[in-house]
Amino acid sequence: MQQAAILAALAMVSANAANATDFNAGVVMKKMNAEQRKWYVSGVVDGLAYARFSARQAKRSWNAMHL
User: Fold this and answer.
1) Counting beta carbons within 10 angstroms of the beta carbon of residue 36, is it exposed (0 to 12), middle (13 to 18) or buried (19 or more)?
2) C-beta atoms surrounding 37 within 10 Å
3) Cβ atoms < 10 Å from Cβ of 6
4) Dihedral of the alpha carbons of 34, 52, 11, 29, in degrees to the nearest 10
5) Which of these, 15, 49, 46, lies nearest to 32 by C-alpha position?
6) 14-40 pLDDT tens trace
7) What is the reported pTM?
């Protein structure tokens, strides 16, 4: 399910980039239907959560090696 959200978000961003349109909150709210918005926002949140997790893991790993 998480992978589907990320793929949906990437597909929307890629399709939008091909049209050379700025991708902002207006596009998300006005041009996406409710289902698309749900998956897009879910993908963004999952991506941010993973980035935070990954950064913490890297910091813990570095601290463990240098203590």
Assistant:
1) middle
2) 14
3) 17
4) 30
5) 15
6) 655 555 678 888 888 899 999 999 999
7) 0.54
